[in-house]
Amino acid sequence: MIDSSEEAVERVRMRWPRINCLLGDATDDDVLLAAGIEDAYGIFPVLSSEKDNLYITMAARQFNPHIRIVARTAEVVSIGKKLFKGGADSVVSPNMIGGLRMVSEMVRPHVTEFLDEMMRHENTQTEMAEIVLSRTSPLCGRTLKETAFPRKYGLLVIALRKDGDAFYTYNPSGGVRIDRRDTLVVLGARDRIARLVRDAAPE
Q1: What pTM was estimated for this model as a whole?
Q2: Could you give the 3-state DSSP secondary structure of residue 148?
Q3: What is the Cα–Cα distance from 50 to 34, expressed in whole angstroms?
Q4: Which CATH architecture has domain 2-93?
Q5: Would you call 70 helix, strand, or coil by DSSP?
Q6: What is d(CA 179, CA 133) in angstroms, rounded to the nearest whole number?
Q7: Do the Cβ atoms of 140 and 179 come closer than 8 Å?
Q8: 171 — alpha (psi -120 to 50), left (phi > 0) or beta?
Q9: Residues 6 or more apart from 106 whose CB is under 8 A from it?
Q10: What are phi and psi of 199, to 5 degrees?
Q11: Which of 14, 55, 76, 115 counts the most CB atoms within 10 A of its CB?
Q12: pLDDT in tens, 120-159
């Protein structure tokens, strides 16, 4: 975490001591480099200034072409487009998310409660996960029926996105063949998911 407020940094350090915190200006290239931007997996530009978030997005993409960038904005239509052009992988609007959540609470409260409990409760053993097949996975070239996910792994394949496709196929049929860089969305126990991860991306 990078923050220019010493109070905010100390508060995070006290509550979550395992989180690495850096006091500084996130729009300063030297600060980003000191934070390890060149080797980072991802970054969340979430400053109050849209201009600053855009700059951080562009700088992060320049320093690390492979980094995943999830940026926050209040203006999805205007600023969101600029963030995507600047290198963001995803743009999130808290106002839009909040509005969608309120609608979900109104029209499907039980589904919303179920997803919240499954995704966020620490004691829940069942979770949803995304699995990307590596080129060395023994699952490549086989159909979903041949992989026998329910029997072998105890998992349900909820959705599948083929490499290069823009959209997911929900509840894919058993005849669909999977290959490297395909993404599976599965539901099941954590230990079963861990087993699938080992088979999907063996070292």
Answers
A1: 0.74
A2: coil
A3: 23
A4: 3-Layer(aba) Sandwich (3.40)
A5: strand
A6: 7
A7: yes
A8: left
A9: none
A10: -80, -30
A11: 55
A12: 766 677 888 999 999 899 999 999 999 888 888 999 999 9
Q: What is the number of residues in the chain?
A: 203
Determine the Cα–Cα distance for residues 166 and 123; give it in Å rounded to an integer. 34
CATH topology of domain 122-200: Alpha-Beta Plaits (3.30.70)
DSSP H/E element including 73: none
Judged against a pLDDT cut of 80, whether residue 188 lies above it is answered with yes
Give just the sign of the alpha carbon dihedral 38, 6, 94, 112.
Answer: positive
CA distance 116 to 102: 14
Q: Locate tokens 């995070």: which residue?
A: 12
Q: Tokens 């998310």 appear where?
A: 97
Write the single-letter amino acid at 143.
T
- Rounded CA separation 2/29 (Å): 12
Instruction: Compute φ and ψ for 184, nearest 5 degrees.
Output: -105, 135
Domain locations along the chain: 2-93, 122-200
